[in-house]
Amino acid sequence: MIDFWESSQKQKKLKSYIVAHLLKNLSFGYSKNKDIDREDLATYNAIGEKSIFSKRNEIAQKIIELAYHIYGKR
């Protein structure tokens, strides 16, 4: 979008999309991790989901800030 970085409404819409996408794919991503033993998977999922869920807004904001550094300075 041409005026994306000047429009807070468009940025909020993207942020809510990122948060929804994180929550939607949260369990799926952890269950695919091959470095974790089967018996520890339930504990890992509980800790990981809680951690990401509680920081979902901060993660989305950081993604938008990183995108600005790449695409916003023109």
Task: Summarize this structure as a short list of keywords or feature phrases.
74 residues, mainly alpha, 4 helices, 77% helix, 0% strand
Helix content: over 70%
| Total number of distinct structural domains | 1
Count of individual beta strands:
0
Strand content: under 5%
Q: H/E order of the elements?
A: HHHH
Summed up, the helix count is 4
Sheet having the most strands: none
Report the structural category: mainly alpha
Alpha carbon gap, first and last residue: 13 Å
Short description, anyone?
With 74 residues, this protein is mainly α. It has four helices and no strands.
Secondary-structure map:
Layout: H1 8-24, H2 26-31, H3 38-54, H4 56-72
Helix pairs in contact: 1-4
Describe this protein's structure.
With 74 residues, the protein is mainly alpha-helical. The protein is elongated and about 45 Å long. It has 4 helices and no strands. Helix 1 packs across helix 4.
